[in-house]
Amino acid sequence: MAISLPLTEMTIEEKLRIMEAIWDDLRRHADRMPAPSWHGELLAKREAAVARGDDTFEDWEAAKRRIDKEIE
Asked: How far apart, in whole angstroms, are the C-alpha atoms of residue 42 and residue 48?
């Protein structure tokens, strides 16, 4: 199915609204989209690195606070 949008005539706000609508739709149907195999492989590698003590992770809320402080 070919979809044509008048992108050159659209404002940035209009384009962003379309992108948000597409992401919202994709999220509603996420269970129909299988994750690629490399996602599982990457997660396994990261979990192993954390288990070995070679890497750490940070809670998302804590990471946002840290980033906010860094850019102030």
From this structure: 10
Residues whose CB is less than 8 angstroms from the CB of residue 7 and which lie 6 or more positions away in sequence, other chains included: 15
Alpha helices in 1-72 (DSSP H): 12-28, 37-52, 60-71
Residue 32 CA to residue 45 CA, distance in Å, equals 25
Q: What is the pLDDT of residues 19-57, one digit of tens each?
A: 999 999 999 998 898 989 999 999 999 999 999 999 988
**Every domain of the chain and the residues it spans:** 9-71
Which amino acid is it at 31?
Answer: D
CA distance 5 to 15: 10
Residue 47: closest CA among 38, 36, 55, 37: 55
